[in-house]
Specification:
There is one protein chain. By secondary structure, the chain is mostly helical. The chain has a domain of about 50 residues. The protein is built from 4 helices and 2 strands, in the order ααββαα. Strand 1 and strand 2 form a beta hairpin.
């Protein structure tokens, strides 16, 4: 019985080494098969965020889903906060505007 346990431990350790060094078949490519919960045909509004639900994993939420949402929010908010070009910006008030 002792020899059986020793052989099993050696086989498990050998398998861990083989996997650790990358031998064997590579893992399959990951494909995103989850449906999009946010609309992509228009800018986001506050009520869109009420419907967001992230997929849970062993250690919490899927990082790629959270990162994608944060990148999109950052891009949209940066676009909205960008200063207007000088030809579209309001001109500075003149003395006659202040007096009138």
């Amino acid at each position: 019985m002792t020899w059986f346990i020793v052989i099993a431990i050696v086989l498990v350790a050998g398998g861990a080494v083989v996997v650790g060094v990358g031998a064997g078949a590579p893992m399959a490519a990951v494909h995103d098969d989850r449906p999009d919960v946010l609309p992509f045909d228009r800018p986001l509004v506050a009520s869109d965020l009420d419907d967001v639900r992230f997929t849970t994993t062993v250690r919490g939420y899927r990082m790629d889903e959270v990162d994608a949402l944060l990148l999109r929010l950052r891009a949209e908010w940066s676009e909205r906060a960008a200063p207007l070009p000088p030809d579209l910006a309001d001109p500075a008030p003149t003395e006659t505007d202040r007096a009138g």
